[in-house]
Amino acid sequence: MRFKKAIYCLIILLTLGSGFTWSQPPDEISIGSKKFPESRLLAEIVAQYIENEGNIKVNRRLGLGGTLICFEALRQGEIDLYPEYTGTGLTAILNRPIEGKESQEIFEEVKTAFDQKYDITWLDPLGFSNKYAIVIRNTFDISRISELNVIREKIKLGFSHEFLNRPDGFAGLSAHYGFGEMNVRGMEHGLVYMAIEQGEIDVTDAYETDGKLVRYNLTMLEDDLGFFPPYEASLVVRNGILSSFPGLKNKLQELSGSISTQKMRELNYEVEVQGKSMEEVARNFLVGGGWINPSELRVGSASSGLLVQQTWRHIQLTIIATLLAVIAGLPLGIYITRNEKMAGLILGFSNVIQTIPSLAILGFMIPLFGIGFKPAIAALFLYGLLPIIRNTYAGIRTIDPRLIESGTSMGLNGWQLLYMLELPLSTRVIMAGIRTSLVINIGTATLAAFIGAGGLGDFIITGITLNDHSLIMKGAVPAAILALAVDFILGKVEKRIGPKGVVS
Predict the structure, then answer these.
(1) pLDDT tier at 229, thresholds 50, 70, 90
(2) Are 242 and 249 contacting, i.e. CB atoms less than 8 angstroms apart?
(3) What's CA 199's distance to the chain center, in Å?
(4) 330 and 414 housed in the same domain
(5) Residue 107: its pLDDT value, please?
(6) What phi and psi, each to the nearest 5 degrees, are found at residue 363?
(7) Is residue 326 within 8 Å of residue 491, measured between CB atoms?
(8) Whole-angstrom Cα distance, residue 440 to residue 423?
(9) Which one of 97-106, 193-202, 246-255 scores highest in mean pLDDT?
(10) What is the pLDDT averaged over residues 124-136?
(11) Which region, left, alpha or beta, applies to residue 308 given φ > 0 means left and ψ of -120 to 50 means alpha?
(12) Which tens digit of pLDDT belongs to each residue from 257-267?
């Protein structure tokens, strides 16, 4: 039957897609980063520094989202190291108070706690502190954070999502300065400068080393009541990987104290404002500082086939997840046609899944599956269920009852009715559900890049972070074309596999 052939085709695609390597090779080090440019740039510097030893492979898993995603990935062994900040480690991860503590005291506290509690080494600081700062358009004549109270009715505030939700972010700042209730917009950090430039907001959070501060001519307000703690940049590394590579710790410690605050701001400026690639900026820093020999330079991140690789990864994500949804959803849809009491429960559950934001579902999967391919597949699988279950149920339930009666009178039992009558007659409706599920997953899969699953979302997220429209289009256009192509092809398949003589 044509329906069976369609299922077999999907199984073949799954087999092709499952060539993904789930485990990390023993001679490879995975380096992660958060999604903002400085974190990615620091990770790229470390990656190139390690790579140029020649005998260690580096797997870059950059742009993993916020602090807790990166830390959870490190704790579960999905990555081996990433750049972190002492103030963030103390407040956002350890949930400890920071008021009144000096830089060295904070460093010693996080170093000891991470080693004892998480089996993670906190290496010596890289040499700069990247504290949060509050910046304002220079059309307002103020210089201190406390003065925001004076002009609170005249200003529009917009802060990054992470800053809004951190204990050392807006809530703590507001309480410390006595701001009270203020109307605040949340947005991606990569978009706040554009919003200020366009007059959408007047005040936002920034980092002291932000390269864009110079470009947008903003005023950095003095933290006159001393709210923001030190944020010394360091590398946090799993003790397990240090055991596997005995010389790695000493190698990484050589970078300690190598980057001043001014130097970090210059490096960020090259990436964020001048538009240089992170690979180029990292390479120039390492060569210029004598960390690597240019004649022996080996850089593994650049790849002329990156778009092809990420497109194929996107296809893997969507096909595998949709096939799993077919395997689960088709029997469930058939089951509820036989058990109406369960129909409302199962369809209701599937509907609820659809109402949960995609990023929330991806976040729910991290404690279960870590980061990367597996949690993305699990989340997309859940998103793909509803169209398949609903269309299977609707397709079978809308068959003319007289045809069922005719089949029964001919002596067909329940399985024979399903196999010879109900599924063939509802094939087009079921295929329409599979088609919808796959198209939905192609769009949703772009968000999987936030948890290191790869795909075309990598280009989109990086483009948003760097305000690079060409990168955004590099991911968005292929994703749109892929969705249109899949919709067109499955539309043709839907028409061909239906029973002849049935008018759709």
Answers:
(1) confident
(2) yes
(3) 29
(4) yes
(5) 94
(6) -65, -40
(7) no
(8) 24
(9) 246-255
(10) 91
(11) alpha
(12) 999 988 999 99
| Residue 493: per-residue pLDDT | 81
Which CATH number do you get for residue 484?
A: 1.10.3720.10
Residues 6+ apart with CB under 8 A from 288: none
The answer to pTM > 0.85 is no
| CA dist list (Å): 123 to 29, 80, 81, 265, 381 | 17, 13, 10, 22, 39
Residue 434 lies in a domain: yes
Mean pLDDT for the chain?
A: 84
- Give the tens place of pLDDT for each residue, 279-316: 999 999 999 888 887 765 555 444 446 788 888 989 99
Amino acid 446 reads T
* Residue 274 shares a structural domain with residue 378: no
Which two tokens mark 489? 């092809």
CA distance 392 to 404: 16
Does residue 226 lie within any of the structural domains? no
From CA 231, how far away is CA 211, in angstroms rounded? 17
Residue 16: partners with Cβ closer than 8 Å, 6 or more residues away = none
Please name every residue paired with 218 in a beta bridge, in sequence order, or none if there are none.
137
> pLDDT at position 19, please?
43
Q: Of 220, 243, 277, which residue sits at a domain end?
A: 220
**Contact criterion met (CB below 8 Å) for 384 and 358:** no
Cα–Cα distance between 101 and 103 in angstroms, integer?
7
Q: Tell me, what amino acid is at 205?
A: D
CA atoms 305, 486, 418, 390: torsion sign: positive
**CB neighbourhood size of 61 (10 A):** 22
Torsion 446-448-451-452 (CA) sign:
negative
d(CA 15, CA 3): 19
Task: Enter the DSSP assignment of 230.
Answer: P
Q: Check residues 442 and 10 and name the one with the higher pLDDT.
A: 442
Tokens standing for residue 43: 């990770």
Residue 466 confidence (pLDDT) above 50? yes
Domain containing 84 equals: 33-129+231-296
> Residue 52 and residue 384: Cα distance in Å, rounded?
43
Read off the amino acid at residue 120.
I
Dihedral of CA atoms 354, 358, 360, 362 in degrees, nearest 10, equals 110
In a shared domain, residues 336 and 467: yes
Residue 46 clears pLDDT 60, i.e. is over it = yes
Residues 178 and 119 sit within 8 Å (Cβ to Cβ)? no
